[in-house]
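User: I'm putting together a small comparison set for a docking exercise, and I want a reference complex before I start. The sequence is below, and the ligand is magnesium ion. Could you produce the 3D structure with the ligand included, as structure tokens?
Assistant: Of course. I'll restate your input first, then give the structure tokens for the complex.
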Amino acid sequence: PKRILAVANQKGGVGKTTTAVNLATALAAVGRRVLLIDLDPQANASTAFGLQRDPHRQGTYEILSGAAELADVLVETPVPQLMLVASSMHLAGAELELVGAQGREYKLHSALHNTSHAYDYALIDCPPSLGLLTLNALVASDGVVVPLQCEFLALEGLSNLVQTIDNVKRSFNPALAMEGIVLTMYDRRNGLSEEVARDVRSHFGKRVYETMIPRNVRISESPSHGLPILLYDHRSTGAAAYMKLAGEVLKQELQG
Amino acid sequence: PKRILAVANQKGGVGKTTTAVNLATALAAVGRRVLLIDLDPQANASTAFGLQRDPHRQGTYEILSGAAELADVLVETPVPQLMLVASSMHLAGAELELVGAQGREYKLHSALHNTSHAYDYALIDCPPSLGLLTLNALVASDGVVVPLQCEFLALEGLSNLVQTIDNVKRSFNPALAMEGIVLTMYDRRNGLSEEVARDVRSHFGKRVYETMIPRNVRISESPSHGLPILLYDHRSTGAAAYMKLAGEVLKQELQG
Ligand SMILES: Nc1ncnc2c1ncn2[C@@H]1O[C@H](COP(=O)(O)OP(=O)(O)OP(=O)(O)O)[C@@H](O)[C@H]1O
Ligand SMILES: Nc1ncnc2c1ncn2[C@@H]1O[C@H](COP(=O)(O)OP(=O)(O)OP(=O)(O)O)[C@@H](O)[C@H]1O
Ligand SMILES: [Mg+2]
Ligand SMILES: [Mg+2]
């Protein structure tokens, strides 16, 4: 793929899956060819597209372990131009299995870099930890999109994540950069939300997307219908926000 | 400790830390002697009691690695009768370090079971994964309190967690049982919340606490003041809910 973005944050429940699924859909909606990789053993991105758990389906685990090529495990989604590599329970064992492996940090990198450039974007949905799975995503990526919930506890972990990105850039992947921080579940009626947003913008300036994703119940309903928000309710504030975010990501690409 | 409870769920952001901190406080408020163990490298439970990160403070990592005894690493909290074992960044490395260790699943078990019975309860705040840290918590515990956010994606992972508890019970810790599921961030204006609550109660019946923790902004504000909700705003709906939950946990103990 021409551009690989890891959607990562070790803090749990901040909107990583929601952002990976809906940003991927919004980029596909404006004509980009997109690949979404579910790197979380919870398989929430796979569920969000209506995939039932299937122990026989090959996916992310098989491309990490080398048992299959990327081209063999692609799954269609309800979104034209968007293909998915599904997660499975086997992925939970991958962290332990990879520990002793040769070049353990580069497994995803080699799986993704051997493919043709049939894709403009690949987005990787990461689990809520900084273990070997997320490390593989950071080593394989050009940029990191960091969803940040507008909550105090979510702010706490940001410096760890920034530090980890710097470490990976220095030791494994000099091309890696922070693509941007996206504020999620923003609720303008809630003073804390406002305070966190102000705090993050004062620290990170331009690295924070202008687009904020509002708290919107339609977003949390959409995975139960197996559809991204753009297909579930394209008139919702959530859908509009992810389209606007895609616009900012594309603008950034043009500016290089 | 007489009773050890792991607060666990691999799904991120469901209220594990909030439940561990506030249930521990509520139990201490009614006279129990309580120990709270922060087993998450994010150290959110430590932050919630106002602890700044301190690379020289010993805590959970040192008791897991055997470098210190439990009695040497206890930290006072603003709550009488509640002591804390703090997390640190070193804990992030513990998962990888434990992989090759002898009896790797029993490290926390032996650290907790060598202490005197000075405590009535020990609560363990787990990270959002089913790796070696959470496994250590399950092996060391008598029961598992499972916070469950009233959201569709949170429901998806529940069967994995129940399966993991059964596996640990069979292979490592026959005493382990599901103490109870507590519904968190419940919002009665949101149909999805209601639907998830009904679904969980129909599947798990009595194993779901009657008490539901409402979505309450005072709860999400309290960690930024380094106080549990009972001390930050004892009149809030959040504080009342955690007191009620403590009552149910104590009632369950009496029934044995
Ligand atoms: N803007 C939003 N408005 C309302 N609900 C949201 C929003 N974004 C995400 N959610 C809901 O919040 C929950 C957490 O989001 P999500 O699962 O995407 O986070 P995550 O960071 O991927 O979690 P994990 O750490 O477990 O991987 C989900 O139930 C999701 O549907
Ligand atoms: N009942 C509630 N009402 C409002 N906000 C809440 C409630 N419970 C938790 N929160 C907030 O939601 C966020 C997630 O909660 P918390 O951090 O306790 O979850 P967690 O499961 O421990 O997350 P992680 O998976 O990262 O460890 C926090 O910002 C917290 O303050
Ligand atoms: Mg996720
Ligand atoms: Mg937590």
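Chain A is about 45% helix and 20% strand. The mean pLDDT of chain A is 95.
User: Thanks, that's exactly what I needed.
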